[in-house]
Design goal:
Blueprint lengths: L1 E8 L2 E7 L5 E5 L13 E5 L4 E3 L3 E3 L1 E5 L8 E5 L5 E3 L4 E4 L3 E9 L4 E9 L4 E3 L4 E5 L3 E3 L3 E3 L8 E5 L5 E3 L4 E4 L3 E9 L5 E9 L7 E3 L4 E3 L2 E3 L7 H5 L2 E3 L2 E5 L17 E6 L2 E8 L13 H11 L7 H6 L11 H11 L9
Parallel strand pairs: 5-12, 14-21, 24-28
Antiparallel strand pairs: 1-2, 2-3, 4-7, 6-10, 8-11, 9-10, 11-12, 13-16, 15-19, 17-20, 18-19, 20-21, 22-25, 23-24, 26-27, 27-28
Helix pairs in contact: 2-4
Amino acid sequence: MTRIAKGRQSGELWDRVKLENGLVGYVFQNYVEKIEEIEVTKVNISLDNTTLQKNERVDLKIEVLPQNATNKQLTYTSSNANVVSVNSNGRLFAVSAGTATITAKSSNNREGSIQVTVYSKVIGMQLKEDELCMQIGENYTVTPIIIPPDASNTKVNFDSSNKEVATIDKNGNIKAIVEGSAKIIAQTEEGKFKQEIALTVIPKLEEGTIIFENELKVNGNQITGIQEKTTVEEVLKKITTSYTIEIQNGNGEKLKSKDYVGTQSKIKIYDGEKLIIEYRIIIYGDLNGDGKINSIDLLILQRHLLEIQPLSGLFFKAANIDKTGKRPSSVDLLRIQRHILEIKEIEQL
C-alpha cells in the first residue's frame, strides 16, 4: 500500500493509505512498517519481431530492473502514432507503413525504447485507362494506382503483347511504333495483381487535320475541358476537321445532337467508313457517364470509398477531382458536394 497522509485521532496515529486496487482507507500506524523505496534502474523493451504487418496487434515484452523495484509503473509513447500506436498496457497497433520508436518510461525517468517497422501489403491495383488510341511516334505514360496507398512495395512490371506495334519501359512509358493493336500489361511485383490496356496505334495525322478549340485539352486520346450538361452539337462546334465525326456514349450507342456527352463518351472520326481516330471524354465529377454531376455521382463515389463497388477506367480518373493522379478520396467527395450545392464549381481542365 501507499501512504497518502498521516493523521491523529483520540491520541492514536492513523495513516491514510491507498491499495494497489485503488481502494483508499485508514490503517493504525502500529500495524504499518515503512518500506524504503527501491528505484527502477533499467527498463528493457523487446519484441519477437520488430517488423509488423499493417493492422497487426502485439504486446511489448518488458523487463523492469531490479525485479524488486517498488514502483514498476510505466508510461508508453510512440514517436509516430500514425504508424504505430501504443496503449497504457504496452500493446502495439500497426496503423500504416513506416517506422516509429516506442518508448517505455518509469516514474523516475528510466526508459527503454525499440524501433518498429510496419509493412503494408499490396491488395490490389487499378489503372486510369482501359483503352488507348495513339498515333505512330506518340508517347504516353501509364501510372498505376497501388492499393492501399501506403503499400510498402509499389513495384510494377510492364509488358506489351506486341512489341512491334508498341513498347513500354520499366517506368510505364509507352512508345507507339507502327499501326496495329497490342495489349499493355501491368502487374504488381507483390501479389501479382494484373491489369491490361487495349491499345490501338494509328498512322500519324498531319498537323491541322483535326483542330480542337483551346478549352478542350487533348492528352493522347483522352479529352478534358468539357463542362457538364454539354450537348453533342456544342462539342461538334469545338472541333474543326474535313472528316466525319460521330459521338457515342460509353456503350457505343450513337448520341443525338441534343444529348449530353459524359465521361467515357467517344468522339469517333471517320474517313468514309474507315475509323481514323477515337477520343474519349472525361468530365470530372461525372461518374456514371450521363454528363451531369449530381447526387447519383456522390453515391457512386461513396460506394467506391467504402469498397462496395470500386470505380475503374475513366470513371476512376473522373473521380479524382483534384487531379493529383492518386486514388479518389473523401476530399474528392467533398468537392462534388460543394459543386452540387453551387459553393465551388469543379474545374474541367
